Amino acid sequence: MSKVFFASARVKKWKYSDSMPGKLEGLLKQTDLKRYFEPKEWVAVKTHFGSEGAHRIVRPVFIRKVVDAVKAVGAKPFVTDTVRIKGLDYLEVANSNGINHLSVGAPVVLADGLYGNDNIMVKAGEILGEIAIASVIYDVPAMVVCSHVKGHIQAGYAGAIKNLAMGAVSGAHRHCGWKCGRGAMHTIGEGKLIWDESKCVLCLQCQEICPLEGINFKDDKFSYDDDLCWRCGRCTRVCPEEAVKMPGGDDEMFMKSLSEAAKAVLSTFKNRKVLYVNFLTEIQPECDCMPAAEVPVIQDIGILVSDDLVAIEKASVDLLLKEKPLPSSLAEDENIQNGDDILSSLHKKDYYIQITSAEALGLGSQEYELVLFQE
Q1: How many CB atoms lie within 10 A of CB 29?
Q2: pTM, to two decimals
Q3: Contact, 272 vs 264, CB < 8 A?
Q4: Are the C-beta atoms of residues 28 and 65 closer than 8 Å to each other?
Q5: Neighbour count for residue 92 (Cβ, 10 Å)
Q6: Nearest Cα residue to 368 out of 321, 315, 326, 322
Q7: Residue 252 Cα distances to 184, 260, 298, angstroms
Q8: Which end of the chain is more exposed for a tag (fewer CB within 10 A), N or C?
Q9: Is residue 363 classed as helix, strand or coil in its secondary structure?
């Protein structure tokens, strides 16, 4: 049975060791990183840099604690993510959100290069076939996956599986484009944008939100660069009239594709070389890639650490299910009640499929022991 170490967000003593940064330090010591990382070994600290306007990412203070803990065993960490907008712009976003060498204590790099197409094709299963893993993730011998637990309009729940599946995969491959990148998961191989002129009010929100500036409205007619498009789906999410749509596979196929991609990423690492840290904080309804951050729908719960991907996701969900929806949030707008599955109620997605699929693929076990942090 896998161990999942847990520290509550509640502060019972007014001392540093009872703060969340202090508890994270304690959790990482309790985990004993020497079992995973060797002196002088390069270790990727994988996180999400966020977006301009989306500030509820894993805070730099927590990333710094992970970096310091990796350094303490003699390993050499760096902080990384894959390109979601133009590479130089994404580094600027990271810096504006507080993620830079000075704040986190380690180099900050793009895992798939400035152009987002520096990657290696890896076998990924029946649904995806092959997927483009960021070359830095492919090559590095060890990794700590720092995931902000939250909702997601397509995945329902986003934690470590989603962070691996989409965060370690490039948006596109230099030869086979989005169909070999994370766009393959978003659309399961389809993904032509469809514009319904009769519904469009020309608000231009889709054009404004496109991270690659690929949408145009010449003469008030919608068009987009099909080769450039990464199929991120942001345009469809912000359209108030549902005038822009992007057909894709069903939810079950999408969830299973996440698990396939996560397995492909993990296939590039040896056993016990990847550690997971889930931050159940600022649990907003949407992904950190959107250009704004909503108020949390669930109160801060705490931090989890494990070397079992499935166990930490199951433990995260179990903790979420015990919480009440927060007032003055989207949960209240949707009339979600105490005892409801808050994230599932918000997005109408069976997010649990990604966990059971990951277990079926041998990525871990839902059977776990929750080990409470004690100072």
Answers
A1: 11
A2: 0.91
A3: no
A4: yes
A5: 14
A6: 315
A7: 14, 12, 25
A8: N
A9: coil
Alpha-carbon distance 166 to 48, whole Å?
Answer: 10
For residue 127, what are the contacts with CB-CB under 8 A and spacing of at least 6?
188, 253, 256, 257, 260
Domains belonging to the chain, first-starting first, are 2-173+252-372 (3.40.50), 191-245 (3.30.70.20)
| CA–CA separation, 94 and 137 (whole Å) | 18
Residue with tokens 């599955």: 341
Q: For residue 32, what are its two tokens?
A: 């004993």
For each of the chain's 375 residues, which pLDDT tens digit applies? 999 999 999 998 899 999 999 999 999 999 999 999 999 999 999 999 999 988 999 999 999 999 999 999 999 999 999 998 889 999 999 999 999 999 999 999 999 999 999 999 999 999 999 999 999 999 999 999 999 999 988 888 999 999 999 999 998 888 888 778 887 777 775 667 888 889 999 999 899 888 778 899 988 999 998 877 877 778 887 888 889 987 766 778 888 999 999 999 999 999 999 999 999 999 999 888 888 889 999 999 999 999 999 999 999 999 999 999 999 999 999 999 999 999 999 988 899 999 999 999 999 999 999 999 987
Tokens of 178: 């989005």
Q: Are strands 215-218 and 221-224 parallel, antiparallel or unpaired?
A: antiparallel
